[in-house]
Every structure is written in structure tokens, then in C-alpha cells.
Amino acid sequence: MHTNPSSPLLQLAGLKVAYGGIQAVKGIDLELYRGELVSLIGANGAGKTTTLNAIAGSLRIAGGEILYAGEKIHVFPAHKRLRRGIALVPEGRGIFTRLTVEENLRMGAYSRNDKAAIEQDMERVYTMLPRVKERLHQTAGTLSGGEQQMVAIGRALLSRPKLLLLDEPSMGLAPLVVEKIFEVVQSVVKEGVTVLLVEQNANLALEFSQRAYVMESGKITLTGSGAELLTNPKVRAAYLGEAA
Ligand SMILES: Nc1ncnc2c1ncn2[C@@H]1O[C@H](COP(=O)(O)OP(=O)(O)OP(=O)(O)O)[C@@H](O)[C@H]1O
Ligand SMILES: [Mg+2]
Predict the structure, then answer these.
(1) Better-scored residue on pLDDT, 243 or 36
(2) pLDDT class of 2 with cuts at 50, 70, 90
(3) Could you report the per-residue pLDDT of 102-115, keeping only the tens digit for each?
(4) Cβ of 48 less than 6 Å from ligand 1
(5) What is the DSSP string of 83-107?
(6) Pocket residue to mutate for ligand 1, from 19, 22, 197, most atoms within 8 A of Cβ
(7) In the chain, at which residue ranges do the beta strands (DSSP E only) sit?
(8) What is the mean pLDDT of residues 120-147?
(9) Ordered structural domains, the chain, with CATH
């Protein structure tokens, strides 16, 4: 595997994904460098979730390439991509509602057998997410939405990801809880994890991201630094609820 730090950790080149005959992702290019927090914003149905699922391996691609650390990983099944360090926190969180918080977290480490390191990672998650630690033995289905989102992120961290894909972590959460989630995402980035964040909450996503891509109808239509896109009149009109 290439480890050149100046080459992208993740590169999508002409990526296409289709459902039956319908193309949902129509040849997109996207790059993600180590240590970055990059967001992907766009309206409902733009193809954001489809893109994340294609990277994680739960969807087959119809064209183009997905390069991870220089390697064509689109040929690998999802579990192999997870072992290589790509973890997805799916839309809707994918919590096991009947399991306890602790059991949910440990599910994230199911493919690992380095017991001591797993315990270290559990401790790291407890430090990062104190609210989760307080509720280890609670059934996950009885947690609040924000707590469930934290458990979903914690579970993904238990796989020791290098690349974390977050699909709308703020969905359905109150503003204060959303801020808390964004703080958690920032601390994950500080720990050295590269993050690709899909968000409807464009304002916060752009504020927190180094760079961002705007997706419309399966294509990338704009890219730039978070700050640039925040002041871009087209972005402001389309995603930040301002009159054009
Ligand atoms: N399983 C599926 N079968 C057929 N079409 C699908 C399927 N999943 C998604 N699509 C279609 O693909 C397109 C992109 O959907 P996708 O879920 O990737 O959008 P999104 O940007 O994540 O939207 P949202 O912001 O609402 O989550 C949409 O037109 C959607 O209807
Ligand atoms: Mg989606």
C-alpha cells in the first residue's frame, strides 16, 4: 500500500453508481487528504448517501474508481474495506436497539482480535463521549436521538478507522445536541481520523469543514474551502435559506 502522505487518502475518480437503470451518481471526482474534515452537502436525493455507501462497499459501483491510500478498493467487499480502516456511520444511525450501549460499542470491534487495544479504544470512546459512558448498560433503543448518534459514532471508532464516513449525524436533533455532535466530530479529527461528512445542516458543516463539495442531481457542482462556500451567493441561496 502507498503511504505517501501528500497523496490523497481517498480519491473518487469518475465515480458512477446506479440503481437498476437509474444513475444516482453520475461520474464524480472527489479527494480527501489525511487529517481533513471535508463535507458533502446537497439537496435531498442529490446522491450523497449513495456516494458514502459506495465508498463503504455496501453498493456496487457502475463506473470509475475508488482509490484508498492509492489502492483500488472498489473491488473489495465491505468487510475488507472496514478492516482497511473505512467506517461508515449510516443515515439513521443503524443502532442495535435491543442491545445495550456497551454491546453496541463492542459490535464495532467484531472484526478485531487485539483484545488489549480494544479495551484501550473503549476507554478512548468513554473519554470522548462521557454521556455514553454513563449509560453503558442501558438498552440502546431507549436512548435519546443524540445519545444514539454518539453511540453510532463510538461504535464506528471501535473499528479504529482511518477514514470515517458520517451520513447526516445531526438529523432530527435539537440545535444544542447538534453542536455537541459537531464537537465530537472535531475531537475525532483531532485524534487523526480523516472525516467525510454528509450534512443537510450546511451552515454548521461548512463552518466546521476545511473543504466541502456541493452535490446536485448526482454531480459535483461546486467545491472550495468551507469559508469560501459559506460566502458563495449560490450556496447561500440554495442551502442556507437566503434569498438569491
Ligand atoms: N435503493 C434504491 N433504489 C432505487 N433508487 C434509489 C435507492 N436509493 C436511492 N435511490 C435514488 O438515488 C438518488 C440519490 O439518493 P441518495 O439517498 O443518495 O440521496 P441523498 O443525497 O442522500 O438524499 P437525502 O439528503 O434525502 O438523504 C435519489 O433519486 C433516490 O431516489
Ligand atoms: Mg442521504
Answers:
(1) 36
(2) very low
(3) 999 999 999 899 99
(4) yes
(5) HHTEEEE-TT----TTSBHHHHHHH
(6) 19
(7) 10-19, 22-32, 37-42, 63-68, 71-72, 86-89, 163-167, 194-199, 211-216, 219-225
(8) 94
(9) 35-57+85-239 (3.40.50.300)
